[in-house]
């Protein structure tokens, strides 16, 4: 039997009568992580990992939230449900379902390289694996993050020596936390857009300990950030908010920077290939580690990735969903201002 059906509301488990990452309000929603393409408001109740709960509260407001730990089993109408680390962002989870000896796993978004912040990806054995494939083409192969961090540090340091402000565009939930540690090692003051500092404060209030970010507000003068570092969401690029920081150089952290020419098309000075999603090799490694006999591919280069799996002896088919990619998944957080 199909433990998960693909419906116009999202991934639905009929036996358990719940949805996973639905894109419309439902009675019971299991949420893999708090990015806006996977976590929508209006549902009656939410089940998520304990790290995700305060982020959902920031994004969606007060609701009925049920928090679980990694590997904790909850039985819903006979279906055993557990959450396991996906390594994408803080609290990001894979959802494991078991019923009558049949095991399905929905990956949510994931990456295999341990960033030291998100709990490292854990491969889960299953019969059926539903996997994202945002970067499901062979051209997407990431450098070790330590090398990317060194490139960012070098760029920021050079800008500082030239008295130019370094504006780094990074998602407020995920990427911004990853780059803080290497940026702090420069001892150059770090400032943040409201979307960055609100998430930062919420995480610090809930037991995380990230380096200091100074919020940019009406009291911040040009001398405060001249030659220093500013982290902003990609939605701030090209807005009047940016103009006050001149002279500055703009760098963007994204897996899409792997493709030559994207820096020019995005009108930025530097592109750093840093993604919170698995690359081509990571996707293949994850699929093989599950031992799944059947694979469904969602959001991303799903047709190409599904075709490759079929050609290499793994039964796969693509599924259309409303989940986004690296360009659409996190900046519309409620309660956030400039």
Automatic annotation (TrEMBL):
<dbReference type="GO" id="GO:0004527">
    <property type="term" value="F:exonuclease activity"/>
</dbReference>
<keyword id="KW-0269">Exonuclease</keyword>
<dbReference type="GO" id="GO:0016874">
    <property type="term" value="F:ligase activity"/>
</dbReference>
<keyword id="KW-0540">Nuclease</keyword>
<keyword id="KW-0436">Ligase</keyword>
<dbReference type="InterPro" id="IPR036866">
    <property type="entry name" value="RibonucZ/Hydroxyglut_hydro"/>
</dbReference>
<keyword id="KW-0378">Hydrolase</keyword>
<dbReference type="InterPro" id="IPR050698">
    <property type="entry name" value="MBL"/>
</dbReference>
<protein>
    <submittedName>
        <fullName>Ligase-associated DNA damage response exonuclease</fullName>
        <ecNumber>3.1.-.-</ecNumber>
    </submittedName>
</protein>
<dbReference type="InterPro" id="IPR026360">
    <property type="entry name" value="Xnuc_lig_assoc"/>
</dbReference>
């Amino acid at each position: 039997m199909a433990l998960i059906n693909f419906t116009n509301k999202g991934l639905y488990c009929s036996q358990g009568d719940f949805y996973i990452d639905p894109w419309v309000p439902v009675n019971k929603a299991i949420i893999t992580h708090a990015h806006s393409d996977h976590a929508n408001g209006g549902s009656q109740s939410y089940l998520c990992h304990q790290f995700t709960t305060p982020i959902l509260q920031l994004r969606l407001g007060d609701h009925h939230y049920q928090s679980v730990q990694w590997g904790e089993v909850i039985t819903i109408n006979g279906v055993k449900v557990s959450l396991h680390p996906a390594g994408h962002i803080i609290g990001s989870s894979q959802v494991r379902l078991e019923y009558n000896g049949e095991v399905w796993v929905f990956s949510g978004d994931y990456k295999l390289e341990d960033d030291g912040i998100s709990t490292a990806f854990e491969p889960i054995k299953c019969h059926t694996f539903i996997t994202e494939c945002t970067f499901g083409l062979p051209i997407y192969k990431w450098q070790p993050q330590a090398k990317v961090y060194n490139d960012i540090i070098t760029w920021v340091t050079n800008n500082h020596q030239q008295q130019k402000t370094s504006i780094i565009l990074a998602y407020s939930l995920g990427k911004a936390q990853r780059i803080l540690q290497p940026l702090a090692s420069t001892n150059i003051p770090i400032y943040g857009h409201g979307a960055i500092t609100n998430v930062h404060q919420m995480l610090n209030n809930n037991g995380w300990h990230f380096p200091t970010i100074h919020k940019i507000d009406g009291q911040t003068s040009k001398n405060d950030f001249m030659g220093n570092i500013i982290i902003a969401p990609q939605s701030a690029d090209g807005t009047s908010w940016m103009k006050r920081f001149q002279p500055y150089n703009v760098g963007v952290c994204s897996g899409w920077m792997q493709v030559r020419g994207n820096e020019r098309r995005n009108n930025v000075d530097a592109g750093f290939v840093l993604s919170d999603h698995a690359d081509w090799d990571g996707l293949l490694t994850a699929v093989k580690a599950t031992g799944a006999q059947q694979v469904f591919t969602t959001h991303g280069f799903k047709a190409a990735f599904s075709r490759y799996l079929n050609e290499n002896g793994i039964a796969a088919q693509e599924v259309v969903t409303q989940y986004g990619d690296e360009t659409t998944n996190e900046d519309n957080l409620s309660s956030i201002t400039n």
